[in-house]
Each structure stands twice: as C-alpha cells, then as structure tokens.
C-alpha cells in the first residue's frame, strides 16, 4: 500500500511539473504563469477558462464566488446582498488598522471609479471588515469617509463576517504581535468585481492599476 501511495505521489508531481512547463512555454503575451497554469488545468479537466478581461482574472468554469450575507453598514443598519441587487460592486476585504495594503487598495478603487467618469456612478464600492472586534460601525464610518464619498463600510458579528468571507473564499487570521497584547490581521488581498446578480465576475490582484480596473469594469458595464 505504501509503495502504491508513493508511486501515485510521484506520478502527480511529474504531471503537475509537466503542466507547469507547458504553461510556462505556452502562455500568451501578457498572461501570468499562474493564469496560464490554471488554463492548462482547465483544459485537462475538460473545462474552458474564459480569456482574462483587461486588468482582471476571470474565474475558471465551475468556480463561483459571492453569495448571501448579512452585515451591518457604517450607519448601524443591517444590510444583506439584496440591498445591492442590480448594482455592480467593487468589493474589498480588509481592516481599518491595516498599515499599508488596505489603504492602497481602497485608494485604487476610488481612483478607478473617478477615472470612469459618470459611468462610475453605476458601481458601488464596498469595504468589508475582517476585524469585527475593533471595526465597529462608527470606526468604519470614519475610515471609509477618507477614501470615497460613496464607499460603503460593512462589519458585523464574528459569525456574520465569517459567512461573508466564506462566500468570497477570503482568507483571514488574527496574528498576535510578540510581547504585546496588540494584534494585526493576515488576509488575502483581492478586489472583487461583483455583478448585479451578486456573483463575482472577475477579481484583481494587489497592485492592479486604477486604469486597468476602470477598463475592466467599463467593459462589464457595456455588456449588461
């Protein structure tokens, strides 16, 4: 049995290495190695991976992100995904004590909306906290006002936040700092483009430019 397991493991490693090699040498101009790898895997499994949109990463066929949630906005009002029905959203998960990445990505969202001009009014920016212990509605109200006048801040109980994070497959974890009671939050950092149906259409990696996001969102709006 152990020999069989080892043999299967070796075969899988060799297969993945071969797929990675094919992805490396066969990637399209401007395509990242990760996107090329996912495209090759989708092809091997019989799925088709849509071509990436400008500045964004399309999800492989069969992969679904987004869905129902119940949270509290910066005014203290309980909201669900139904409150945003029919709207295009740009969603980011982070926390107000974040020293660098979160402010940068929220600033990128604001700049992308401004770059879109009047069309940007059709898109709602949303910031969802993964640190409900500290991010009260009042804290969120102060924080989101620094980035964009239409930015919606959402928080809630630990259970409500966990539900929303699961729907978007967001990783987050509390990280204690050495020799202190203070903590920070480790978390994944993607901007999600959510369609009027509440499902993610595309996502943007950290440091994607506002221009690229604006182009991708504009293309999605034209397709509605």
TrEMBL record:
The lineage of its organism: Bacteria, Pseudomonadati, Pseudomonadota, Alphaproteobacteria, Acetobacterales. This is SCO family protein. CDD domains: SCO (cd02968). One of its GO terms (molecular function) is metal ion binding. Disulfide bonds join 98-102. Cu cation binds at residues 98, 102, 187. Signal peptide: none annotated. Residues 43-222 form the Thioredoxin domain. Keywords: Copper, Disulfide bond, Metal-binding. Pfam families: SCO1-SenC. Belongs to the SCO1/2 family. Gene3D superfamilies: Glutaredoxin. SUPFAM superfamilies: Thioredoxin-like (SSF52833).
